[in-house]
Amino acid sequence: MDRHLKKGGPAAALATIASLALAGCSAASASQDVETTSATAPTEVPDVPYASTYSRYPGVPTALVGATIYDGAGGRIDNGVVLFANGEVVGIGGADMAVPDGYTRVDGTGRYVTPGIIDIHSHLGDYPSPSVPAHSDGNEATSPTTPEVWAEHSVWPQDPGFSRALANGGITSLQILPGSANLMGGRTVTLKNVPSRTVQGMKFPGAPYSMKMACGENPKRVYGGRGRMPSTRMGNFAVNRETWLEAQEYAAEEDPDRDLAMETLAGVLNGEILIQNHCYRADEMALVMDMADEFGYRVSAFHHAVESYKIADLLRENEVCSAVWADWYGFKMEAYDAIPENAAMIHNAGACVVIHSDDANGIQRLNQEAAKAQADGRRMGIDIADADVISWITLNAARAMGIDHMTGSLEAGKMADVVLWNGDPLSIYSRPEMVWIDGALMYDMNNPAMRPVSDFELGQPGEGDVK
Asked: For the sheet containing 210-214, what is the strand order?
């Protein structure tokens, strides 16, 4: 079982903390056991197969006082107060905000508070550490369209990358996507970044599924290299359109036979499943939006999207987010026209910007990536407020993942996913000091007992290391 605590420290304190953590594990396990024993009869299809069994870890009513607060929605409060209890944000305000009796006060003087950081594009668990062929489970590269596969069925919950993302990056939620070998790569899964024995115990409750699509070089290289369609960009679109036609026919049937691929595509067509589309070039993104109009679905976000700056107005008009890097460039031809000012130019045009990682190391530094993109914009005369930049790694990501009504900003009633930074989060010198997920303290840099360690790491060199 994953360990949330390391051995050591005062015995009494550890006993208390351990009992709380184990209680959280027990609650999650119990809910899993209940779902297993109450499963529907074999002839029935459950409404939500592989449903979330996530149960929040125990927390205490908490007041963060005296910190600079970025609320994730573009607001800033100096010397502010954040209250949370029972897993939810209770209130946020200035220094005059009253702290109710029974709240544990955390002094945030000289520090900063943000919502939990969200990575919209991760492959943790599907391409876990150590990175070896036996762990390579993100691409079902056997057919150009595999909407029937689900990323969660490859997620290894003991990936040490999860705890590194929590401790070093303040990551509280993340979307795991299949790879980009296929035009239709399968369903994504959104996770809460908590220790669990099963992926169901990490699944973000109520988060919609997305389907990963990819255009451009990757599918045509993979399948063209095997002498089959698609081997060109026009082949990419032809295969996509033929598949969507088949999906429309399936969706129109009153009582179709079960088809896992078609079930996913029908879910996209009826709006229940979002589209996360790997795409680099501006012209292809424009064509994809036309194809979405043709078949009646909507792209939630283009990922990587290094040329979004060329069509930022179209993206704004179609309400499509761009999930981008700060400055990855030139590693293949479709990445050649990338510019570091991309994010700033998209934002300046009024379109939605998300900073993503696509990398087990990058996920630990999304705050720094956002700061780099901000600085690149400032250098060309686009001055973007810090509070708006924070939204690139919080609320905008949540919006593109369909979970913004539950997390992504510090608002009363939302999940208490909160990070206390030991300095300005847009500084390279700052790092998370404390991280809460649903109001439960999951990491404290000043308490070695609160540094999560995967069971896989126990007894190995570098166990639980943080930067």
From this structure: 184-187, 210-214, 274-279, 299-304, 321-324, 353-355
